């Protein structure tokens, strides 16, 4: 819900300022949200979980629209279809990679056991490891996003 609320604002903002700054900031907020999830415990209240999910949603909103803007602004109009297709493929690949990571960790730590109260400690361990790995990978994304170069200076030079 938070991502849906802020994505259009973030997209409009990325038309006025360099999208790499917004996208990198959004990825940084996402890293922080993922890192906070490492501290989940059986005693964690619903309010803290919802608040953390709101942080993640805000980070996703600040990243997604400006990143799409930066990618689509970096190609010629005749290549919009290809760029959009590659962007969608990369997004799906990332989602499938993260699902594979989760399933590998679950199978290594929990095995074939069902998720039941006696397996909750193992389940929580899997979640924490997944969040640490995800935060680490996303922190690399912050630097990759910053390294893409200034979009606005290229557009001014092209004019």
Describe this structure in words.
- This protein is mainly alpha-helical and 159 residues long.
- It has a domain at 2-84 and 131-158.
- It is 81% helix and 0% strand.
- The protein is globular, with a radius of gyration of 18 Å.
- The N and C termini lie far apart (38 Å).
- The model is unreliable at 153-159 (pLDDT under 50).
Sequence of secondary-structure elements: HHHHHH
Rg, Å, rounded: 18 Å
| Helical residue percent band | over 70%
- Taking pLDDT < 50 over at least 5 consecutive residues as the criterion, the unreliable ranges are 153-159
Helix/sheet category: mainly alpha
Which geometry do the CA atoms define? globular
Please describe the topology of this protein:
Elements: H1 2-16, H2 19-37, H3 46-73, H4 80-109, H5 120-147, H6 151-158
Key features of this structure:
159 residues; mainly alpha
A few lines on this structure:
The protein has six helices and no strands. It is an all-alpha fold. It has a domain at 2-84 and 131-158.
């Amino acid at each position: 819900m938070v991502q849906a609320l802020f994505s259009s604002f973030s997209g409009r903002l990325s038309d006025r300022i360099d999208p790499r700054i917004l996208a990198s900031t959004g990825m940084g907020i996402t890293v922080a949200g993922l890192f906070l999830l490492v501290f989940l415990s059986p005693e964690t209240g619903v309010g803290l979980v919802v608040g953390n999910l709101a942080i993640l949603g805000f980070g996703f909103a600040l990243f997604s629209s400006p990143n799409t803007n930066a990618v689509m602004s970096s190609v010629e109009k005749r290549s919009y279809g290809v760029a959009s297709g590659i962007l969608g493929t990369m997004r799906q690949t990332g989602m499938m990679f993260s699902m594979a990571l989760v399933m590998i960790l679950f199978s290594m730590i929990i095995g074939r056991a069902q998720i039941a109260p006696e397996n909750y400690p193992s389940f929580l361990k899997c979640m924490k490891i997944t969040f640490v790995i995800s935060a680490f990978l996303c922190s690399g994304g912050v630097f990759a996003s910053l390294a893409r170069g200034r979009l606005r200076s290229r557009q001014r030079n092209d004019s």
